[in-house]
Amino acid sequence: MKRALGSKIAMYVALSIGALAFLFPFFYMIVGSLQTNVDPTPAGAFPNPANLTLDNYAAINGRIDLLQGLANSGIFTGGVILGTIVFGVLAGYALAVLQWRGRGATFALALLVQVVPFQLLMIPLYVMIARDYDLADSYLGMILPFFINSTAVIIFRQYFLQLPKELFDAARIDGAGEFRLLWNVALPLVRPALLTVVLLTFIGPWNEFLWPFLITKDAAMQPLAVSLANFISNIAASTANPFGAMMAGAVVLAAPAVALFLVFQRYFTSNDLGSGVKG
């Protein structure tokens, strides 16, 4: 009994130390964004309250429009998530539930796409979208290359394969079509997959720099990640506290992602597959 209690205490201590080590960079980033005078030593993580200010946020907002950058990032990320969910659900359902010739080859192709780096496709994509489609400096031009995500297709396929085949057979006997099956039977049972895909997809476009940097030249269209990179490269030195201003921008960029994970983390462990089957 004592040995089990000691093991549990040791496990919690180890997990707490790991959590603190993981969270410390975020804490230091927030503290750095609030400092009037930079303290690069470890003691800077615990500053004097008299050295704290919100001026760094005002300074970076005066150089780049934080709200506009956040709006651009939100539109870019939202468009990518919408396309990922819609096409991922449809393709995953077709690969897992429907019977059709070439299904295995299509799934193998989806797996093969995973090994092709995006950087290899970037130049032809830029030529096609900017020159052929004339979508430079537009939200659609930013979104299109990421609109369909093969990783999401694979995730949805694996979740749909876990659903009992009897559920679909019973619904078909009752006269339900495939779209009704997908909407009323399959989707309610794979909510963890939906949240997983949303969270995994969110991080990519939210932090994406290279493609929006290539496709947007108008500063008013650039996502926050690109605006912050331009700030660091070109105008950070013109601020009274460049380090604090950069940390303030990083906090603004990281805050929505951290908040999203904190709000939805409990849904990762939920699973409703058992609720649809009795007996």
TrEMBL record:
PROSITE patterns: ABC_TM1
Domain ABC transmembrane type-1: 70-264
Entry protein name: Carbohydrate ABC transporter permease
Major location category of this protein: membrane
Pfam family of the protein (one): BPD_transp_1
TM annotation in the entry: 12-31, 75-98, 105-127, 139-160, 181-203, 243-264
SUPFAM superfamilies: MetI-like
Keyword Ribosomal protein: no
Alphabetical list of Gene3D superfamilies matching this protein: MetI-like (1.10.3720.10)
Keywords noted in UniProt: Cell membrane, Membrane, Transmembrane, Transmembrane helix, Transport
Compartments, as annotated in UniProt: Cell membrane
Topology in membrane: Multi-pass membrane protein
InterPro entries cross-referenced by the UniProt entry: MetI-like, MetI-like_sf
Keyword Transmembrane: yes
Family, as annotated: Belongs to the binding-protein-dependent transport system permease family.
